[in-house]
User: Fold this.
Amino acid sequence: MATTSLQSYKYPTLADKTLVSVEDCIEAYNLKPDGIAFVDGSWYHRSKRSGRADFEAGPRIANARYIDMDDIAAKGPELNPKNLPHMMPPPKLFAAAMDAMDIRSDQHVIVYGRDGCVFTPRTWFLFQQMGHESVSLMQGSLEDWISLGGDVETETAVALRVDALDLSQSATYRARDAQNVVGMSDMIEAVQRQGGEGSSDVILDPRGTSFDKHHMPGAVNIPYRSIVTEENLLKFRPKQELEALFEEKGIDVKTDERIMLTCGSGVSVCHLFVALAECGRDNKNTFVYDGSWAEWGSDERTPKMSIALESN
Assistant:
């Protein structure tokens, strides 16, 4: 029997889009294609709630998998000597995790989250950076899916943990090194280029009130909550509103200069990456500082600013 892929169905509204409606996701699911995989990317910042625990307890989209960004990450003194949180994993680890989850490189991945979760764009970015060609973000929660009649399973499940993986085996899944991730030396260079003659990198930071307390010199604040709708934090604002948001901050989304994105620990920054792409920016000159303030703020050598300092 031939393998059925999403492309074999005449369903163009899903395959070429990053942001897809819950209705479109349900329609694609109901086609039952072998070429589609739903991934729960629920993660909560400074909360006792656990995305893993919620997934394992159910409900969940039937046959969905769970991505734990804190588990599928670079760890240990060789890969992560500063012990920074949820750093981008090496391709070998990601590929082994995908094989264990039975996710193929040729499948279309749809990332979704539970109500109350905000940070599914990080899981989308993880797949995108590992070279997965077709990956989308569901614009709405699992609860929205259920309310619209989407199929779920309710029995308990066990989500993958990477310590159970055998990394000595060759992986079937094809993963690559991240293309749009930079380190602290790149950000130091970007800060040094601020206000000088000639070209200058643009630095954007999507944090909330913590930006006022401390941020990189020259950084422009575009809070991630301003990128999503007030009524549904898993739904991005329309393109026209995103364009107006960047324009209001004096940001040319089509600039040929590098746009460097930084946040607290490399999570909310992915909202900006998606929003810039939705506004028509080519990803090749947009970069995410994975270590972000978790690394920058803890290093005595890095320059730091605050709203209070800037106002004096």
